[in-house]
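About this split. The held-out portion is used to measure sequence recovery: a designer receives only the structure tokens and must propose an amino acid at every position. Recovery is the fraction of positions where the proposal matches the reference. Here is one held-out target exactly as it appears in the evaluation file.
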């Protein structure tokens, strides 16, 4: 069984990455979404073990000490990290694993897995991102301003990624993401032994 590929996805808040990934996961059943651990509070609508594994800071620090995390970071005052075992088990089982993580964690994963595929999701424009953040109606002006500033900073790291997906129209962005996965599966480096196998017939 060929091993799965590792796909790292980053995007500033408000770019629609959750929705893109939800739809992509529904359309490609070989994709496995890595549920991160976090010490942030659960938001309305979130479920433990689905959105995140919700932990106290102490529990999270125990996971760090126990070597249970592939990578972790502190973002906006909360810990976020990728549980190692699920990712390595799924890759071994041939699943294509998706990590939805911020830029620092992404850079750390790239060092550990140089062959991973890095995808950055972009808003069509800052004006549109501003509009989407206001439309949510959940945050104050000050929070929105900070999110836009952070988005600008994060966007500067997009040039270190392999692929850019612009979320102007949701369906196109989902198709683009799935096309990237499909193309990456055909990359020669991701098909070890295929040529030799054929030649040995
Ligand atoms: P939120 O609190 O809005 O769900 O996530 C905040 C940021 O943390 C997002 O950019 C998200 O992608 C990132 N994030 C979520 N899980 C992880 C993780 O396991 N590791 C890292 N490094 N970042 C994460």
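Reference sequence for scoring:
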């Amino acid at each position: 069984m060929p091993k799965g590929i590792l796909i790292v996805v980053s995007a500033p808040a408000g770019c629609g990455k959750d929705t893109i990934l939800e739809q992509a996961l529904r359309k490609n059943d070989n994709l496995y979404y890595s549920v991160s651990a976090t010490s942030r509070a659960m938001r309305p609508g979130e479920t433990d073990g689905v959105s995140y594994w919700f932990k106290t800071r102490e529990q999270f620090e125990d996971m760090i000490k126990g070597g249970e995390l592939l990578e972790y970071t502190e973002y906006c005052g909360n810990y976020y990290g990728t549980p190692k075992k699920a990712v390595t088990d799924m890759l071994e089982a041939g699943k294509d694993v998706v990590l939805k993580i911020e830029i620092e964690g992404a850079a750390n994963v790239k060092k550990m897995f140089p062959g991973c595929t890095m995808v950055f999701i972009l808003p069509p424009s800052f004006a549109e991102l501003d509009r989407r953040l206001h439309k949510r109606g959940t945050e104050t002006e000050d929070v929105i301003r900070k999110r836009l500033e952070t988005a600008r900073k994060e966007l500067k790291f997009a040039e270190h990624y392999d692929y850019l997906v612009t979320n102007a129209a949701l369906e196109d962005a989902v198709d683009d993401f799935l096309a990237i996965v499909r193309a990456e599966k055909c990359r020669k480096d991701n098909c070890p032994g295929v040529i030799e196998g054929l030649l040995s017939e």
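Annotator remark: Residues 35 and 162 are 23 Å apart (CA to CA).
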